[in-house]
Amino acid sequence: MMLRKLNAYMMFFGPRKNPLGFLGAVIVIVISLTAVLAPLIAPYDPFETKPAERLRPPSKSHPFGTDELGRDIFTRTLFGARVSLYAALVIISISFVFGSLLGVASALAGGWIDNVFMRFTDAFLAFPYLTFAMLISAVLGPSLQNAMIAISITWWPWYARLARAQVLAVKNELYIEAARAIGVGRLRFLLRYLLPNAFSPLIVQATLDVGYAILLASSLSFIGLGAQPPTPEWGRMVASGRLYLLTAWWVPLFPGLAIFFTVLGFNLIGDAVRDFVDPRTRQR
Amino acid sequence: MWAFLVRRLSLTLVTLWGLTLITFLIVHIAPGDPARTAAGPQARQEQVEQIRKLYGLDQPLWVQYARYMGRLIRGDFGVSLWYKRPVSVELKTYLIPTLELAFCAAVLLICLGFPLGILSAIHRNSVLDHAVRLFALTGVSFPIFLLGLILQLVFYRALGWFPAGGRISPFVSPPQTITGFYIVDALLTGNWRALASALHHLALPAVTLAYGSAAVVSRMTRSCFLEVLGEEYIQTARAKGMPERIILLRHALRNALIPIITATALQIGSLLSGVLLVEVIFSWPGLGTYAYTSAVVLDVNAIMAITIVTALIYIGINLLADVLYAIIDPRIQYT
């Protein structure tokens, strides 16, 4: 059993089968470990300011240099992994739960309820996501928590639509009819038969979305509506470092690259998962 | 065709109504007191009450909604809580530069995305194909604000080829205003100096804005094209000795076009989100900069107006894509 699992895993991410997916997995594992171990591996305190050492270029003692308050950028970038991964996880969880509940309910109810729910969902999709998220976080007040709520509000409709489509597709499968025919109880039918079969594409979509969630959360922070100083958040660090771009390029560059590599890692994994689930795209 | 258009337009109206309802509810139900926000943190209680009365915030919610809709229909977005000027006046000055930038980026996106996708599909697994794949992968993962900063660092600071920001050089007077679009106005008045300067200033922000979307479109074009190239009618066309050029352009492209147009419309729509960030980086005097300054002071009226206007454009783009389907694919019958 263990071996079979390992084999399946190697097919996913094995360095030879899918070098890019493997690279993505490595990046994501490194970033996740960084997030967990940040307090242990970081050389400095992320909040400690040393005005005498402000805007120092990268060196042996400060591999990414120091920022405008003399804080070690390497340390702050390590801690930033915590903030970004946490934000992405919360955003995806909220929108996943809310969206799929509404989507499943809509598909099962059918009729006018389905129609009303779906028009409601469509109206949410009519906004460009960033302006909409901006509006909500401006109304709620700038903070990381509110930014996460704002992004979740713009995000759940995608899951609602997908969940609805999946339930509708699975509903007519033969094994579902069989389960119904032998008289499986309502709740058991829902939890044992319908949902597990309908949900695998949703979970794939959720892994694909982690990268985008990180991008969007850091974009809001970049505008000043997300994490507030002195939180070591990557988007925020790029925003405050932007003022020193021409004289001290390392201040905005390293946190920005951290966003890039994290998102790249998740996207590579997402591609690999999609190829694995949908073999049609594999040859291309 | 006309029946489809009417049906599609009436659906759009429903969406529009839903959109205004959602923005209204978000702003009015959210915790926090808009009167207090407008009055400022130092205001006394009487002042807050005065503002509450002035803006009609003491009325029941449905009265407020009716008034708000009445104003919206007349194109009145209320008064900016910060600048104390009507938001619609500000919007007019900021909208055109944004449209100019987004339009240039859309042109770039189409001119880059389509050919790159088609070429990499035809020359599958070649160096070009791998390069396009790398371009696509980095494009979807790059934070747009970081790309803007890196381009500024390389092309402005290191090489000095392009300006760091703004719409036109401060040493060149802007073209006489006819449409408000600098490029169009400069062309119409034959003001070549202004045209050159405007294009020079557009280059970096337009490339920044288009990059990620062009990456997605090239990838999408590639996979749609490959799918179509495997179809039997392509083999038939090849078997009867049709020139490859005609097979690719007439048979393959036309059939691959529908999903490509969907993806392109979505990407052009997403330019409206990206433009906010790009404008802030390149100090482009458009909606993004306006949204940014409004966000800093939490000017909810202004942000609400920007949200509604960009959503309108977004809906318009999607509507256009739907109409294009019906023109391209005669099989589509919307009944």
Which structural traits does this protein have?
heterodimer, A: 284 residues, mainly alpha, MetI-like fold, 10 helices, 0% strand, elongated, B: 335 residues, 13 helices
Any idea what the CATH superfamily of chain A is called? MetI-like
Q: So what's the oligomer here? A: heterodimer
Global structural class of chain A: mainly alpha
Q: How many separate helices of chain A?
A: 10
- CATH fold-level name of chain A: MetI-like fold
CATH hierarchy class name of the domain at 100-281 in chain B: Mainly Alpha
Q: Ends of chain A: how far apart?
A: 31 Å
Helix/strand order of chain B, N-terminal first: HHHHHHHHHHHHH
Q: How many domains would you count in the coordinates of chain A? A: 1
Biggest sheet statistics of chain B: none
The low-confidence runs of chain B, each spanning 5 or more residues with pLDDT under 50, are none
CATH top-level class of chain A: Mainly Alpha
Helix and strand succession of chain A? HHHHHHHHHH
Low-pLDDT sequence parts of chain A: none
What is the residue-averaged pLDDT of chain A? Answer: 85
How many β-strand runs of chain B? Answer: 0
**Count of beta strands of chain A:** 0
Estimate the helix proportion of chain B, in percent. over 70%
What is the radius of gyration of chain B computed over CA atoms, rounded to a whole number of angstroms?
24 Å
Strand content of chain A: under 5%
- Output mean pLDDT of chain B: 85
Describe this structure in words.
The complex is a heterodimer of chains A (284) and B (335). With 284 residues, chain A is mostly helical. Chain A has a single domain (64-282), classed as MetI-like (MetI-like fold, Orthogonal Bundle), CATH 1.10.3720. Chain A contains ten helices and no strands. Chain B has 335 residues and is mainly α. Chain B has a domain at 100-281: Orthogonal Bundle (MetI-like fold). Chain B is 76% helix and 0% strand. Chain B has 13 helices and no strands. Chain B has helices at residues 2-29, 34-39, 45-54, 61-73, 87-122, 127-141, 144-158, 182-189, 192-229, 232-239, 244-281, 287-296, 300-328. In chain B, helix 5 (87-122) packs antiparallel against helix 11 and helix 11 packs antiparallel against helix 13 (300-328). Chain B starts with a helix and ends in a 7-residue tail after the last helix. The model of chain B has no long low-confidence stretch (mean pLDDT 85). The chains are: A mainly alpha (284), B mainly alpha (335).
